[in-house]
Specification:
The chain folds into 2 domains: about 35-155, PurM-like, N-terminal domain (60s Ribosomal Protein L30, Chain: A, 2-Layer Sandwich), CATH 3.30.1330.10; about 160-330, Alpha-Beta Complex (Phosphoribosyl-aminoimidazole Synthetase, Chain A, domain 2). Helices cover about 30% and strands about 25% of the residues. The protein has helices spanning about 20-30, 35-40, 70-85, 105-125, 180-190, 205-215, 230-240, 255-265, 285-295, and strands at about 45-50, 50-60, 65, 70, 90-100, 125-135, 145-155, 170, 220-225, 245, 275-280, 305-310, 315-320, 325-330. The chain has a 7-stranded mixed beta sheet with strand order 9-11-8-12-10-13-14. A 5-stranded mixed beta sheet has the order 1-2-7-5-6, covered by helices on one side. Strand 1 and strand 2 (about 50-60) form a beta hairpin. The longest helix is centred in the middle third of the chain and has 18 residues, at about 105-125. It is globular, with a radius of gyration of 19 Å. The model has no long low-confidence stretch (mean pLDDT about 95).
């Protein structure tokens, strides 16, 4: 990793890959360092007396604001709820902050707000506070949304990298890459099949179900947004000091999304999602976890994509469909700009 920041920020610094990590570690972590932040997880764990809370925040600057399957409002709500849920927390409430460009259509804003209302109702998590700012025309790209959320971590739930062991399964909750391809198609009018839709979804109820069905089996979960499955696994591998071996033929990717990625020169493993989670779990609990995932409409395509192994050094490897093997590295640069 570099030890010095570049003179200027690039789009790639917001892509969720190696440059994002360097910016966080060299600037934000260096200046804001504390035990909760140092873990660099989807949500920070904050003690509240005898209780434990999860707290998270995220900003959404996606372009275009609406795309097949979702819009900026839905993914703003779902993204924050999911960041709490993968920590094992029960989401309690979220906030919503709006930065609106002068001249933005009130009808369009109302449609997005109704989308947020629908997503929050589906998850059973209220939007309890917020903020509204309007900036001069040309000082924003229509609409930016920030959401923050707080949740309660139940007693006995403690999901950490330290619990991951060789032999643990790596489970993916469904088809990868749909969100990134749907956004790119809408942004650039590529004319791809309408069957490629964003997977934006609140996963808290599905995740609560697997934690209840297989208590103690889930070791760690991660929301697969920027950087996709590949970057998430690389970060987890380095954090736990173990390797991950993936089976290409076992990784769920919809045919339409796979075809689009091939045409565009993209790798589905790096493409963003807004309704998928990777789960590290003890082998003994896999059957119960998969069975429970498949009961949810958001987990019907869940599959065991790989396993944890011990290597000389931590790495992520993919056994390909043609019998070869290749290294999986963190995302370099910006594969899909502004997908969340």
């Amino acid at each position: 990793m570099k030890t010095k920041l570049p003179e200027k920020i690039t789009l790639a610094h917001g892509g969720g890959g190696r440059l994002t990590r360097e910016l966080i570690e060299l600037l934000f972590l260096k200046n804001f360092s504390n035990p909760a932040l140092a873990r660099l997880e989807d949500s920070a764990e904050v003690p509240l007396g005898r209780e434990r809370a999860a707290f998270t925040t995220d900003s959404y600057v996606v372009s275009p604001l609406e795309f097949p399957g979702a819009d900026i409002g839905r993914i703003a709500v779902c993204g924050t709820i999911n960041d709490l849920a993968v920590k094992g927390a029960v989401p309690l409430a979220i906030s919503a902050g709006f930065i609106i460009e002068e001249g933005f259509s009130t009808g369009r804003l109302a449609k997005i707000v109704r989308s947020m209302k629908s997503a929050a109702a589906e998850a059973g998590v209220p939007i309890v506070t917020g903020d509204t700012k309007v900036v001069e025309k040309g000082h924003a790209d229509g609409l930016f949304i920030n959401t923050s959320g707080i949740g309660r971590i139940p007693e006995g739930v403690n999901l950490t990298c330290e619990k991951i062991k060789p032999g643990d399964a790596v489970i993916v909750s469904g088809n990868l890459g749909d969100h990134g391809v749907a956004v790119m198609n809408a942004r650039n009018a590529l004319g791809l099949s309408d069957s490629v839709k964003s997977d934006g979804a609140p996963l808290n109820l599905m995740i609560a179900g697997i934690l209840k069905a297989a208590p103690g089996s889930v070791k760690l979960m991660r929301d697969l947004t920027r950087g996709g499955l590949a970057t998430a696994l690389c970060e987890i591998s380095q954090a736990c000091g173990l390797s991950v071996e993936l089976e290409e033929t076992a990784i769920p990717v919809a045919r339409a999304t796979d075809n689009a990625c091939r045409m565009l020169g993209l790798d589905p493993l790096y493409v963003a999602n807004e309704g998928k989670v990777v789960i590290f779990a003890a082998a003994a609990g896999v059957a119960k976890i998969l069975s429970n995932l498949k009961k949810s409409k958001y987990g019907r395509k869940a599959a065991v994509a790989g396993r944890v192994i011990k290597d000389a050094k931590p790495q992520v490897r993919l056994n390909t469909a043609i019998g070869g093997s290749r290294m999986i590295l963190p995302l370099e640069g910006e594969q899909l700009p502004r997908i969340c």
